[in-house]
UniProtKB/TrEMBL annotation:
HTH arsR-type domain ranges (all copies): 1-94
Originating species: Paraburkholderia megapolitana
Entry-linked Gene3D superfamilies: Winged helix-like DNA-binding domain superfamily/Winged helix DNA-binding domain
PANTHER family assigned: TRANSCRIPTIONAL REGULATOR-RELATED, TRANSCRIPTIONAL REGULATORY PROTEIN
Protein name: Transcriptional regulator, ArsR family
One record GO biological process: response to lead ion
Length: 238
């Protein structure tokens, strides 16, 4: 009897283009009905139902009934992490690509990675936190929060005493699939994203993974972390 995990069956489920599109549509962390997932995958409602049944059986998604409607979501952040890491795998060498459209540019610039900030803005913020000594890269793809970091996160509204570390720690490094660099994830990343939205620095776009930086957010990012920017271009003070 084989004692190895059955990676092949999970890989098979993700490998289908329609199912992969459904899963990526759920990376934003929101629950979506089958109709929206069928549209994202470019398939009929009947075909989508078949795909979703397989994803449910494979443990990649969960479903919640609300009246006559059924809403699907990823079964956890661990699935989002796998999808983001797979998306970061690219062939060696330069690959010619078409110029990004506006929607793709927005998604690359700032987006939510399941429940934390990603994209160019997410990476820039993470690097600024490191440069200011608020977080420090540690082993096993973790970030340690320094004493100065505890004070700073508390200053912008996080209750650090309420954070509960997972088996992977309170903060971890998540490889950004568009930038090929790490951004902040884990319980700290989740609450940090929540605080940015509560403070009015960021806003999530409905029915999208896109995150917008508000005028107040740009002012706050400049004052607190030395980050200035606009779509496609960021500058950062040392």
């Amino acid at each position: 009897m084989c004692s190895q995990p059955n990676i092949a069956s999970t890989a098979f489920l993700i490998a289908d283009p329609a199912r992969a599109n459904m899963l990526m549509a759920l990376v934003a962390g929101r629950a979506l009905p089958a109709g929206e997932l069928a549209y994202a995958a470019g398939v009929t409602a009947q075909t989508a139902s078949t795909h979703l049944a397989k994803l449910l059986d494979g443990g990649l998604v969960t479903v919640e009934a609300e009246g006559r409607h059924r809403y699907y979501r990823l079964s956890g952040a661990h699935v989002a992490l796998v999808l983001e890491n797979l998306a970061a795998i690219v062939p060696a060498g330069e690959v010619r690509r078409r110029p990004l459209g506006r929607d793709a540019q927005n998604l690359r610039f700032a987006r939510c990675c399941y429940d934390h900030l990603a994209g160019q803005v997410g990476v820039a913020v993470t690097q600024a936190l490191q440069q200011r000594g608020f977080i420090v890269a540690a082993q096993d793809k973790r970030f340690d929060v320094t004493a100065a970091g505890l004070d700073w996160f508390g200053h912008i509204g996080l209750d650090m005493n309420q954070l509960r570390a997972t088996r992977r720690g309170i903060a971890r490094q998540c490889l950004d699939w568009t930038e090929r660099q790490h951004h902040l994830a884990g319980p700290l990343g989740v609450q940090f994203m929540s605080a940015l939205c509560t403070n009015g620095w960021m806003r999530r776009v409905n029915a999208s993974r896109v995150v917008q930086v508000t005028p107040a957010g740009w002012a706050g990012l400049k004052a607190e972390l030395g980050i200035e920017g606009r779509l496609g271009a960021l500058t950062q003070e040392a």
